[in-house]
Each structure stands twice: as C-alpha cells, then as structure tokens.
Amino acid sequence: MRRITRIATVGIASAALALSATACGGKKSSDATSSSSSSESKSASAAIAYDVGGRGDQSFNDAAYAGLEKAEKELKVKTAEAEPTEGESEADKVQRLTELARKGNNPVIGVGFSYAPAIEKVAKKFPNTTFGIIDDTSKTGANIANLVFNEEQGSYLAGVAAAKASKTGTVGFIGGVEVPLIKKFQAGFEQGVKDTNPNAKVLSAYLTQPPDFSGFAKPDLGKAAAKGQLDGGADVIYAAAGLAGSGAIEAASTAGKWAIGVDSDQYNQPGLAKYKDHILTSVTKDVSLAVFDLIKSVKDGKPESGEVRYGLDKNGVALADSNPQYKSMADITAAVEKAKADIIAKKITVKTAP
Of residues 179 and 17, which shows the higher confidence score? Predict the structure, then answer.
C-alpha cells in the first residue's frame, strides 16, 4: 500500500503540509536538530507518528488516531500526524520525531515499538517535551511514557472463543512479524485454545522476519497465509498483523469461516464492513485511551512518565462483543467471562512467550 508521508494538523486543512520522505516536516527548518528546550514552541499541540501501515490500517494505527481525535474534540487541543515511509531507517524516524517536537507538539507519541531507539535519542534533545512510546519499555527517561498492554491476556480470551467456535478442532494464528510483542499474542491465544480444548490444533505462521517489518502492511501476505491455514482445516483465524490482518479477514470471510480481529474492534471498521458478518470478535487494546490519557496528562500539567500498563483488570485489553452472533453464543460468552475473571483473580497466569 503506497502512502504519502505527511504531518497534518487535524481539522485545519490550511495547516496540512506535504512532506518529503526524508524531511518529514514541510520546509526544512534552519535550526539545528540538536536544539534543546529553548527551541520548543509554547503553542504546543499533540502529535502522533504512525507505525508501519499508517493511518487507515483498520487496526493499530487507527486506534491511536481515535485517541488523538478524541483529545482534539474533548480537550480542545490542536493535533498533528506523521506517516511512515516504506523501508525507512532509524534516522528517518529520528528526523520525523525531531520535526514534530521542534514544531511545538507536546506530547509526541510514537505508535509502535520500532520508534523506541529514535525516541530515546530525541527525548534527550527536548527535555521539556513528553514523548510517548506504545508497546515498548526498553527505552526509558524522565520525559518518556511507556504505554504498554497485556496483549497475552486478551489473546487468551480469543483462544477460548476460537476453541469453542471451531467445528474442526483446528484454528490458526497469523503474526505480522516474528518479534517478542507479537509472540505475546501467539502465546496467549495458543494457551487459551489448549486450556479450553486440549485436543485442538493451532496452526501458527509469521508473514515476515525482522528487520523486514512489511508483514504489518501487506494484506496480500495475510490473505495467502490465511488461505493456507484454511486449506489445512482451520475454521477460525486470528491475525495479529496490523493492516495485513485485513487480508486474513477477507480470506476467512470468503471461505465462510470465522476471523478474529485485533487492536481495534474490527467488526465496526468501515473498511471491513464487507466481511463483518464473519468477524466473530476482536482482541482490543485500548490504544486510544492510552493516547488520550497521555495527552490529557500533559494538558493538565502532570505528564505521565515511566511504565503505564493496561490489562484486563482495567479494561485496557478486552474481547469485543459487537457481533450479534457472538453475543448469542451463550456457551462461548460464558467461557470467556469465566476466563477473564480467573485471569483478573490470578487463578490463570497467561504466558508471554510460546
């Protein structure tokens, strides 16, 4: 999917600036990129820099945008966005974040763990700006907020639902890129399936290996992987693959089988409306809440920093019930609710690695 790199002030068309793949900031400023707090504008707004796939992925990035949009409406703050470029380097991310900070945005939020090294570097240059990093705790600092989730817990519930919904006893998991974060999704899902039906079979596959992160951005790869698992007997497919997951959802729907969405409630995503009747449920991460909370904390003068964790106990992760068919499956919903209660009560410890 080809995307145009941009930093756009949401809702103000005249402020939308076309950017080059390297500059990521309209007309390049003559100020040194190593500027400190003295260069930080007082007319700050909140900004997010998107992960692979960009806004419109119907999943992870769109969840982050929802939080930004909510902040704009409810907190009356100006907002800005920056898109990734295909095959970009860490230097590109550093420049993108630097431009966002230099323009006075506060906080500046990197959507995805891939921004961690860049945020560590840029945060030191702008000590009066709060930086948020979603899905990473490896880089810390006094002005860095690590917004993280218990993805394995939500995925466990998906595993319970998949095992209950499956008629063949075979289900599939598709990960976008084989990294520790996505392995948390796999681990929780597989454990939930096996705890529910010890005889069930889980087919697991990854679309790409790092440093190739295109597995989060190519629906055709997700579609092909799902077709392979469907051919192998799977009748429920769970994909944690960002934009590529839409391809898996399409394949499952076309085959008349179940798909389980991720990050956003994909049953309600307009771009997936054609397939919604076959989206059983979705493992949601309240990325929008994390983004909104961080922006609000800065606006209130009490910026968050350090690890900020969202789990089942705080509804930071959950299993969506938007599909009426799912809500009508009493045996599945009861099993999911029991599993949720047991996890919160610490009767079930969910693995974070397969």
Answer: 179
